[in-house]
Design a protein that fits this description.
There is one protein chain. This protein is mostly helical. It has one domain. The protein contains 2 helices and no strands. α1 packs antiparallel against α2. The radius of gyration is 18 Å and the shape is elongated. One of its GO terms (molecular function) is nucleotide binding.
Length: 89
């Protein structure tokens, strides 16, 4: 996964400068998200889809895709709770 360039808040419109603690909290949220998604992908790889019907396989993978998407949304929401961007962005 690529690492984003550090931002100090001065170059991004609608955001304030974050404290060291806030940056650390965001990085914790992101690491938890990465761990969850990594575990989820391991589970997807270990799912024995060859023993499932096509409908069962689709259903199983759909739940995995949904969990992945929802974890990413949760991480984004948690990070926004830290950054407290302007209300209109």
């Amino acid at each position: 996964m690529s690492e984003a360039k550090p931002q100090d808040g001065s170059t991004v419109t609608g955001y304030r400068t974050l404290s060291h603690g806030e940056v650390g909290k965001m990085n914790q949220f992101k690491e938890i998200s990465r761990q969850f998604i990594r575990l989820l992908r391991e589970h997807a790889d270990a799912t024995h889809t060859e023993t499932m019907s096509p409908d069962e396989r689709f259903e199983a993978m759909e739940w995995i895709r949904q969990a992945d998407m929802l974890m990413k949304q949760a991480c984004m929401a948690a990070c926004r709770s830290v950054t407290k961007p302007d209300i209109d962005c």
